[in-house]
Structure formats: C-alpha cells, structure tokens
TrEMBL record:
This is ABC transporter permease. Keywords: Membrane, Transmembrane, Transmembrane helix. It comes from Streptomyces badius. It comes from the Bacteria. The chain crosses the membrane at residues 20-39, 51-71, 77-96, 116-137, 173-199, 234-252.
Length: 282
C-alpha cells in the first residue's frame, strides 16, 4: 500500500478544525501538567484540587475533537465501530500486566493502531481506551484526565511518524519499536509530573518545593523519577519493544487489511433504475 493510499483509507483525516482543536487540547494539557512548577509557593495550588476541574474542561475538548473530525472527514459507523473494538481490546489488555513491573501490553497496540489509522484517530483512540480501562479497573480518580490526555498524545505521535512509502518491513518495525520505547518512558515521566507535585514529604532531595526555582525543582523531579519509577517505565518500554517486534508484522497487516476493506472514504452512490433506457425487470 502506498503512503497516499493509506492516508486515503484512514478513518479520521485531520482538517483545519481538527488541528485547531487538537492544538487547543494540547495547550490546555501542557499548562495542566506544567503550571505547578511556576506557581507561587504561597498559592496553595496543587493537582489534587485542579484535576477535577481539568477533567470537566478536557472532556468537552475531546468531544469537540470527535465532532470536528466527523464534520470534516465524515467519520461513519465503520470508523466508530473500529474505534470501539480497538478501545475495548486495549482496555482489556491493560489489566493483564497491572501491578507487575510496569508490564502494560496495551501500549504496543496503541503504537500500531496510531501508525495505521493516523494521528486524528490515534488521539481519540488513546483517550477513549484509557477512559474505558479506568472504568474497567476501577481506576477513576483525579489522575484519569491526565492519563487520557497522555495516552492520546502517545497514540497520536505514532500516527505522525514518517509514511510507509519511505519505511517498510524491518525498518518500519524498528522505527515503531524505538518510538514505543521512547514514548513509554515519556508517558511515565509526564504522569510522574502529575503526581509528584502533591507529594511534598518524600525528602528534601526529591520532593516538590512550591515556589522554588524551576531548575531546582527539575533536578528534584529527575531524582524522583529515578528513585520511584525508572524500573516501572523500563518494564513498560521493554514489553512494548518486544511485542512490537514479534507481533507487529501480523497486527500491522491485519489493521491495514481491515482499513482497506472498510473503505472509510467510500461514499454511497445511487443511480436511476434503468439508466440504459430499458426498464428493470424483476
């Protein structure tokens, strides 16, 4: 399949409205994750207070992404069905490794799905999958909107990688494995930032100090990541790489075959009966 053919087969193609809403959602997310580093020490700001409000703000933005893509690319029932199936599979995979050294098999599925189905579909898929898995595992809390946004970024990034007309076979798998490894660490690091700011009694070397200079808090944050989650993130990254290299070829073929057969861009055409001048007979 050529790059142009794959882009045409994607169920959600980004248009101006979609890009604008994704950028807005991303900007809100960056501020939500990063503003405690710049907050004044006497403000009393912490994610424990702002996360529920962020959840209320993010969900309409995520819905707006879906609405924008539907209006621009005609996201039909087939695309919604594929979204539901992949989100259900991802949500079912997540509990399999929960609590075991960061082994989370859903990440490799998100990488491959985002690669085949594109960044627009990938962002929605990542967010919906994390939401569904939180409901499935009882992991609903103030951290959930942050997980939804981070997983949306994770899956969308795979859809932004260079096209398959330039990278095929083993080269493509190697690229996806490297991306999955780096993104797995990035996901863990971003989520650490969400939780680290509310843990102020871990010790002077690794705890968040409201109002401290940014570079000092960043040093503490890196020490916190190394001390608390490096092994967990490593397990997630290694499993993502192994599954991508071993199961990746089969799953990529299956996803691309399903995308081609779904013919997302096909539009129904109606012709007048007996267009050749002869009446139709039963």
């Amino acid at each position: 399949m050529t790059d142009a053919t794959e882009r045409a087969a994607r169920p959600v193609r980004l248009g101006p409205k979609s890009v604008a809403v994704l950028l807005l959602t991303g900007a809100v997310g960056v501020v939500a994750f990063g503003w405690p580093l710049l907050a004044d020490g006497g403000s009393g700001l912490a994610h424990a207070q702002d996360a529920p409000w962020l959840f209320a703000a993010l969900l309409p933005l995520l819905v707006a992404v879906v609405v924008a893509t539907i209006s621009e690319s005609g996201m039909d029932a087939k695309a919604v069905a594929m979204l539901g199936v992949l989100a259900a599979v991802g949500a079912a995979l997540r509990p399999l490794g929960a609590g075991t050294a960061g082994l989370e098999p859903m990440f490799f599925l998100m990488v491959l799905s985002g690669r085949v189905l594109g960044p627009g579909f990938g962002f929605v898929l990542g967010s919906v999958t994390m939401f569904a898995s939180a409901l499935l595992t009882g992991g609903v809390g103030p951290w959930m909107p942050f997980q939804m946004l981070s997983m949306g970024w994770f899956t969308m990034g795979a859809g932004l990688l260079p096209g398959p007309d330039r990278l095929r076979g083993r080269t493509e798998l190697a690229m996806l494995a490297v991306y999955g490894c780096v993104a797995a660490f990035a996901y863990g690091t971003v989520m650490n930032l969400q939780g680290w700011v509310i843990l102020t009694e871990l010790g002077s070397g690794i705890s968040f100090v409201p109002g401290a200079p940014v570079h000092e808090n960043l040093v503490r944050f890196l020490a916190y990541c190394a001390a608390t989650s490096l092994g967990w993130d490593l397990g997630r990254a290694v499993l993502t790489v192994v599954l991508t290299l071993t199961l990746g070829p089969t799953l990529l073929k299956a996803l691309r075959r399903a995308t081609r057969r779904a013919a997302f861009d096909a539009r129904a055409a109606f012709e007048e009966p007996g267009a050749d001048g002869a009446a139709d007979t039963p």
